């Protein structure tokens, strides 16, 4: 009987244990677009494409990030209107150059093209699965609400940003957890 009560108590306080796949390069696919700072006069160059090594399918975001001419970013972005209220964060399987990369989320509070909620992560040459809680996302401008509105996600993007470097980020799975 004690085990039953304990089990019920734990289930009441359990964190969401299910996920929602955004893209697994198989039966769930997002509609991705590659964008660079060229849209605002920068000179960064971006490539985004699907690749395969052995049994592993993945997307590759690569290019030359240049801060010249007021630039400094490349990104792959997917329109993703969704209520993520029941989820804790984003889980991604990644590998890449030993650099900082970013997840950018836009909500209705992202009124201008430069508005977003930002979280950074580090990659290396080995595949790894990382989790980024929504609470780790920071607003990009003072006039935005401090907290990301999880009920109204509009886009999700992966970006190389803020310094001059050759970026290469491989992304094999994206899901909400």
Helix-strand blueprint:
Elements: H1 2-13, E1 20-23, E2 32-36, E3 45-53, E4 56-65, E5 73-82, E6 89-96, E7 100-106, E8 117-122, E9 128-133, E10 138-139, E11 153-161, E12 165-176
List descriptors.
single chain; 177 residues; mainly beta; 6-stranded antiparallel beta sheet; 7% helix; 50% strand
The mean pLDDT is 90
User: Which oligomeric state applies?
Assistant: single chain
User: What overall form do the CA principal axes indicate?
Assistant: globular
N to C succession of SSEs: HEEEEEEEEEEEE
Q: How is the biggest beta sheet arranged?
A: 6 strands, antiparallel
The SS-based structural class is mainly beta
Structure commentary:
With 177 residues, the protein is mainly beta. The chain has one helix at residues 2-13, and strands spanning 20-23, 32-36, 45-53, 56-65, 73-82, 89-96, 100-106, 117-122, 128-133, 138-139, 153-161, 165-176.
Write a compact overview of the structure shown.
Helix content is 7%, strand content 50%. It has one helix at residues 2-13; strands spanning 20-23, 32-36, 45-53, 56-65, 73-82, 89-96, 100-106, 117-122, 128-133, 138-139, 153-161, 165-176. Strands 1, 3, 4, 6, 9 and 12 form a six-stranded antiparallel beta sheet that branches. Strands 2-5-11-7-8-10 form a six-stranded antiparallel beta sheet, with no helix packed on it.
């Amino acid at each position: 009987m004690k085990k039953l009560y304990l089990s019920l108590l734990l289930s009441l306080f359990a964190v969401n244990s299910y996920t929602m796949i955004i893209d697994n390069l198989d039966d769930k696919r997002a509609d991705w677009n590659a964008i660079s700072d060229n849209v605002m006069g920068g000179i960064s160059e971006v490539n985004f494409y699907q690749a395969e090594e052995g049994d592993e399918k993945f997307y590759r975001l690569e290019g030359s990030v240049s801060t010249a001419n007021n630039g400094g970013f490349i990104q792959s972005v997917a329109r993703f209107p969704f209520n993520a209220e029941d989820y804790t964060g984003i889980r991604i399987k990644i590998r890449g150059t030993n650099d900082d990369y970013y997840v950018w989320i836009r909500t209705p509070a992202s009124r201008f093209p430069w508005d977003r909620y930002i979280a950074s992560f580090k990659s290396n040459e080995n595949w790894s699965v990382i989790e980024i809680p929504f609470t780790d996302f920071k607003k990009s401008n003072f006039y935005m609400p401090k907290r990301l509105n999880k009920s109204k996600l509009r886009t999700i993007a992966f970006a190389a940003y803020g310094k001059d470097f050759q970026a290469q980020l491989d992304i094999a799975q994206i899901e909400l957890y």
